[in-house]
Amino acid sequence: MGSTEDLDYPQIIVQYSNGFLISKVMFTACELGVFDLLLESGEPLSSDAIAACLGTSTMGMKRLLDACVGLKLLAVEMTQERALYRNTEISSIYLTKSSPKSQYHIMMYYSNTVYLCWQYLADAVREGRNQYERAFGVSSRDPFGAMYRSDEEMLKFMAGQNSVWSICGRDVLAAFDLSPFTQIYDLGGGGGALAQECVSLYPNSTVTIYDLPKVVQVAREQFVSPEERQISFHEG
Amino acid sequence: MGSTEDLDYPQIIVQYSNGFLISKVMFTACELGVFDLLLESGEPLSSDAIAACLGTSTMGMKRLLDACVGLKLLAVEMTQERALYRNTEISSIYLTKSSPKSQYHIMMYYSNTVYLCWQYLADAVREGRNQYERAFGVSSRDPFGAMYRSDEEMLKFMAGQNSVWSICGRDVLAAFDLSPFTQIYDLGGGGGALAQECVSLYPNSTVTIYDLPKVVQVAREQFVSPEERQISFHEG
């Protein structure tokens, strides 16, 4: 769309206005398990069947599914009797929980934490600080204290970061040739997905993840297998 | 971007994830008055000057302005000493409060009402109803009772609807030739912007706006001048 057309009808402004609606449609379909159900079923399903399986309103689910079709996150096949929905390829790879490249966890973090903080973006700009206090009643003087305000929140954040590294970690690590370095430190390495990409890309490297003690504890318990000899931890 | 590239790196998923951030950057720059200030000043301003005029944090404002530059809502000129920001043409037309095509009011409605309701989209799909109760503590059985929960909220909604009609009302009305009709009813005509587009496009028509009594009262007082002889009201 050229700028002349934009001045006549502000396509870009309308798109920007609708951005949050698009985010929330995708986040919500993930949260409710639409893509997981369609992956597991192995066949296209009607909106009634999806609503029944996921325990939602039939009308609400139909509208959500049709919005996902509009966004090309689902495809629909029209039969004489009804519409049948199935995942697009991109949804199977990135929006299902079990996929190695799943973005589910970062979306849940965006949807349930970041989205609400950004409700107060005007206050953030006025005050020059993050908005955990308004959004969650948690003091924001210590950013990691706010982000890690409970073990559950910390776990969500770590899983979310791991989602991101699973799709772009390799590109980051391959931007420079790190093969001469055999001892690598990952400061704030969290759940270890970047470290895992690193030892995969540079098989002669060992990576030490440096992070807060409670982060290291969770990473050891839930994210990095003890058999992973090339990855170790340092609490600090 | 082709689908093969998308399968390798999910550009579309990342864009959809970021949608709400883009919406909130634009909404917030509108709410804080960035575009209005730059229109009034008549010359490019530094981020420090903008922050001082608008009473915000300097760092917070600089980040907001740079985000707007990335979205092409502002342009920046680099001098040896500092960066100077100015409106792009599209921002002057659509994002300033005083412009005839201003989208300010619908953005404030989206940002402060719809955005928060959509925080609960998963609940909305589960329950098959809107989320005014969770977002604002207002029963949602009567949709207009929830939307018009205060005179201030009703006014915001009416001003927002008028913003939208100011850019697409004429196209809607021109989709069919309505010139044979001289008596036109606008059911739920609210603030009257569509009626005004109608009498402008069809000078021989008269339009009767039909709406709730309290909506009609506000429309008469604040939106439709008594001199506008071609527009009348019907309360119902």
TrEMBL record, chains A, B:
GO terms for biological process: methylation. GO terms for molecular function: O-methyltransferase activity; protein dimerization activity. Residues 118-236 form the O-methyltransferase C-terminal domain. It comes from the Eukaryota. Gene3D superfamilies: Vaccinia Virus protein VP39, Winged helix-like DNA-binding domain superfamily/Winged helix DNA-binding domain. Keywords: Methyltransferase, S-adenosyl-L-methionine, Transferase. InterPro entries: COMT-like, COMT_C, COMT_dimerisation, SAM-dependent_MTases_sf, WH-like_DNA-bd_sf, WH_DNA-bd_sf. Residues 15-96 form the O-methyltransferase dimerisation domain. Pfam families: Dimerisation, Methyltransf_2. This is ASMT methyltransferase. It comes from Leiothrix lutea (Red-billed leiothrix).
